[in-house]
Amino acid sequence: MISPNDIPSHLLMGRTDTHIYLRPHPALRGLIAHYTLIFPGSPGQAGESLTLIPDASGCLIFILRPDRVEGLIWGATTQAAVVHNDFATCPPRVFVEFLPGTLSLFAHLPQEELSDRRLPLSAVSAALTPEVARIAEESSSTGAFIAGLDALLLKIIEGRERPAAVLHGLKRLRETDGMLSISALAQETGYSARHLSRLFGEYVGMSAKTFARVLRVNLILSRMREGADSLTLTAQEAGFYDQSHFIRDFSRICGAAPTDYLQNLSDFYNETFKF
């Protein structure tokens, strides 16, 4: 059974009072940002809510109950989601946190069908949760469990690919911090902007324009965590030269205005290792 006390040092990416972040297998590191482990007894008052900042990614969640394992799938997120903060009382949970545009390799269906949805994993795969339950039962340590999970996920994606235009689009939007125009991106791929957006919807779960918007807001939040002094200047550096446009996009993505976000940071959770 997994434990917070036997985390292999070579897998550890980071640790907070509530979360342990672990590296996946090297062959998965361009697809999976990290595994996140949460154990009962983590600090935090049960009953509080937590707003999850959208990261244009999806995840798998495995809840390790004493008598069974429950599997959930969250599609790529484009808008803030409010969840119950149960860190103090929850059973052990394992999150497989995908990088943007990679969930399609593991859940082989049009990603717009999953976008901003939370479903039982059985709705997508009948076999995956029982396989993870078997790995958890047979593993004598956290390291063994992660190795088994790595092997299972590598097997799932064997032979699966994504269109070159989608891969190029994801790469170029990240290289340009989401500021490359979609028309210019479409020209680079050889597709029309409409066709490119259809491909993004199928493989990423949102249009290229929406992905760029989520990317830019998350990059602003990342720079703020690093100590940026001026929210206005940071927004301008991210291409938001119109203050009302920035506030509108920020509020749409985060579910709160920038000033409300800054005043209530403990009420929000945004990914550290994806942007």
UniProtKB/TrEMBL annotation:
One of its GO terms (molecular function) is sequence-specific DNA binding. It comes from Zongyangia hominis. Keywords: DNA-binding, Transcription, Transcription regulation. PROSITE patterns: HTH_ARAC_FAMILY_2. Pfam families: HTH_18. CDD domains: HTH_XRE. This is Helix-turn-helix transcriptional regulator. InterPro entries: AraC_XylS_family_regulators, Cro/C1-type_HTH, Homeodomain-like_sf, HTH_AraC. Residues 164-264 form the HTH araC/xylS-type domain. The keyword Transcription regulation applies.
